[in-house]
Specification:
Helix content of chain A: 40-55%
Oligomer: heterodimer
Largest sheet of chain A: 9 strands, mixed
Strand order of the largest sheet of chain B: 1-3-2-4-6-5-10-11-9-7-8
Helix content of chain B: 25-40%
CATH class of one domain in chain B: Alpha Beta
Number of strands of chain A: 16
Strand order of the largest sheet of chain A: 2-6-7-10-1-11-12-13-14
Number of strands of chain B: 11
Structural class of chain A: alpha+beta
CATH superfamily of one domain in chain B: Amidase signature (AS) domain
Largest sheet of chain B: 11 strands, mixed
CATH architecture of one domain in chain B: Alpha-Beta Complex
Chain lengths: ~475, ~475
Amino acid sequence: MEYEPVIGLEVHAQLLTQSKIFCGCSTSFGAPPNTHTCPVCLGMPGVLPVLNKQVVEFAIKMGLATNCQIAPLSRFARKNYFYPDLPKGYQISQYELPLAEHGFINIEVNGTRQQVRICRIHMEEDAGKLIHDEQRPVSYVDFNRTGVPLIEIVSEPDLHSPEAAVEYLRSLRNILLYLEICDGNMEEGSLRCDANISLRPMGSQELGTRTELKNMNSFRHLQRALEYEIRRQRALLINGEAVIQETRLWDEAQNQTLSMRGKEEAHDYRYFPDPDLVPVEISPDWIEAVRQSLPELPEAKKARFMADYGLPEYDAGVLTGDKALAQYFEDCVQQFDRPKQISNWIMSELLRELKKAERGIESCLVTPTALARLLSLIEQGTISGKIAKAVFEEMIVSGKEAEAIVQARGLVQISDEAALETLAREILAAHAPEVAEYQGGKTKLMGFFVGQMMKKTKGQANPKLVNQLFARLLKK
Amino acid sequence: MSEPLYSLTIGQLSPLLHQGEVSPQEVTQACLDRIAALDGQLNSYLTVDAESALTQARQAETRLRSGEVTPLTGMPLAIKDVIVTQGLRTTCASRILSNFVPPYDATVSAKLRGAGAIFLGKTNMDEFAMGSSNENSSFGAAHNPWNRDYIPGGSSGGSAVAVAADLCLGSVASDTGGSIRQPAAHCGVVGFKPTYGRVSRFGLVAFGSSLDQIGTITKDVTDCALLLQAIAGYDPKDSTSVNLLVPDYAQSLNQEIWGLKIGIPQEYYGAGLDAEVAAAVQQALDTLTSLGAELVEVSLPHTDYVVATYYLIAPAEASSNLARYDGVKYGYRDPEAKNLLELYNQTRSQGFGAEVRRRIMLGTYALSAGYYEAYYQKASQVRTLIRRDFEAALARCAVLATPVTPTPAFRIGEKVDDPLAMYMSDIFTLSANLAGIPGISVPCGLSSQGLPIGLQLLGRHFDEATLIQVAHAFERHTDFHRAKPRL
């Protein structure tokens, strides 16, 4: 029997506020343990939370960017469970009345567009981190992360393949980055993802028993964990066994998911409205003000790139897949109005060289202006496309201007027809047998003659001229 | 001045301090001496920091000389041990916090320090404010100064005893279901619970967060007004505190109550009310009538549900509020624990007393999946009905008058094995916390056994001023607040 996977994701995004969600402590990553703490985030007796307004604003942004309805009144609730990294013994989260609901985003999987519904987005506080001593059976708690603001974005079970799940997560991440409310760093845990997955017979509308997967801290791990889990569940179902509802951990080293706790051991979180916080009231004016402040989002930008610059969908997708890259592209086009040519250069040369240098576009040494000027040099015939690539390789390492490199290395294209003709005649004289063969009909040898010319001129000869020249001379 | 300094009220002592007739050190020393002499029998303090108190007294003296003074400058106070005080051990009368020295002040503590008050120490209470007799303290019961075989009430028993026995000039305490008003009634002093949101809860160790409120226990109504003035007001650190102008409560003193309507809720005068309490309260109502007040009968139809509602909401919130005492970060930790589960189980089993454990279990149950709707949520809905009862009743009158407790203080040990009987002793005080309204307890008589009886006045949200006005009018025309236990 054929089975269809049904997948929904719960994505946690740390928000890029200066201070924590309920106190004034810094949210910055990497400080010495327990230095970004105060009585409030340590859950000491008698302290009270005070909501950081910026958190609400960021969460509204994400809600609007994912087409959600923003609740005029939402509530914080306590999620009660014991763990040493949770200093109050409960996490302040939202339960019955979340900030945003009923949204969607569009994704594209293998050329097919799909809508993924967003069930809800809510605000909550992050927990601390346990650090286990490797020598002794002792654990420590670092509360720096405690109280760092999170939003949880819960999708409906609208995803039907690991690829779709990855694409959905990538799109969410891109939106978060466009909004500048999360740094999207999955390795450091500022973007985290849990997946709920079940299988059902193809064509069925009922949902099968699901498992919840945790501990996937990259797109690759998400993909592989889902692939593994689909194989595992399918094998169970084919053998007539039941899938057990449980939480499973992705084990990167063993390449498999392992049972963490079953349904019976599942926590009863005893949610109830947090009496220490008043309901969050959001006026239509506030929502409107946030809406006005939203930047152009990836989907809109992609459509505009296709419409305004005549780019193919693929190009537009790659360029808008990174806000900074899209900006880079547009800055280039401002100065050199050949969008497709720029797009080609960015997608092939620039991205390859950046990957080689392990740099992001933000720290690229070639400015959009510099790239535009390099491309102008090709356009003007000063250098050939091939030379340009060599120049570019130096630019990206040194940050020097194209003109300077061309000058210093004497790379200016030879377009002097008389000079080239002299050289061409020398080449033909030196290769009489090949000339005879060519004239005997073996016209493929044109490449050989051009190659000889390039060798002689160290690639600087204007290829177009050279071709024309040989064609003329060999006719005689 | 023939009377000893410790026996004065804040209102009497304040001008003497301001005029330099007595020094804060003298007053502080007088209180410390009296604590040393009497508190061995009363057990009203859990922590007394004499050295710090005298240092604070010297600082107050400097302030008094500079003229930068408030009515509380140089005034030795006792702080209930549920309100955190920077550098001064705060235990909540629990073993689990027996070694906890807070690195921060409650907003109320900071305000009192800012006003120049002196902290003598921290007073005994029922553990985490859970109890009506002060018998649930991990550090032993406090004793009623009128008869040491009797309970002083709770949970703020230590504060009421310290005020009644002149072991301080006044006290700040907390009231979650009557914890200020009930012990004040049993000890013959004035206890005031403000409107929920009037006084910051920041630094008040939480029991039932939607019910808890800091208030005052004082020797008379004037002191109540002075102390309340110092602690009331919006606090950005407490999202549930309300940003409303705080009136000048002194303006409510020495006012007439002619023509003022006082509501008499029938449900509070029914079966189970002790005859002596009923008689004393009736006499108080007669006094108020004689002062020109008009009594009107009102009804609070959901009164029968008050105890059940309270004992779902308060334990539910407590079960969550007390989860932080897990032995991981501060406070008691069982040194024998071998793993995480043992750390939690043993620390909390050993660290909390029986009543606290009972309420944690009650509350955990009420919030559990499958029971939440039937218990916690239903109780929240009934709570709304109870609040509406009060709003309707208080639309017809300015204040309500009721007994504070069904009986005078009972004997120590009498109800320890019967938690339900113990819970019923709060029957008249719980509703004010559920409704969020202010309430005051003033002395209105002594039983035949010589135990104090209290009159409770309940007011509209944020109308503390009218309560002070009525209570002070009553006090001016009676002598009950002047009666002192023989010690």
